[in-house]
Design goal:
The chain is α+β, with helices and mostly antiparallel strands. It has one helix and five strands, in the order αβββββ. The protein has a three-stranded antiparallel beta sheet, with no helix packed on it. A two-stranded antiparallel sheet has the order 1-4.
């Protein structure tokens, strides 16, 4: 009988395989449920960037502020078609 056939070896090996599979399954499930939204916020008339503009996804608390160039990135946005809301004071 081989050394690796002692009691519990098979169970530990099976547990390790299940653990690795669960990580891959969880990762793919999370990747399908969210995405990234990015863009630029600018004044319609002057085409100037709007730094500090607040950009949110309607119906959620997920959002970001535009940088000095008016660019924003919203990570972990819910999948599907959504409405983006921009607010700016100034």
């Amino acid at each position: 009988m081989e050394d690796n056939m002692f009691p519990g070896y098979f169970f530990r090996r099976l547990l390790a395989v299940c653990f690795c599979l669960s990580i891959f399954i969880l990762q793919s499930a999370l990747a399908q449920g969210s995405g990234t939204v990015k863009g630029k916020v600018f004044d319609k008339t002057t085409k100037d960037a709007l730094p500090g503009a607040n950009v949110t996804i309607k119906g959620t608390s997920i959002g970001a502020a535009a940088n000095l160039d008016g660019m924003y990135v919203i990570r972990n946005a819910p999948a599907g078609q959504r409405t983006v809301v921009v607010s700016y004071l100034g």
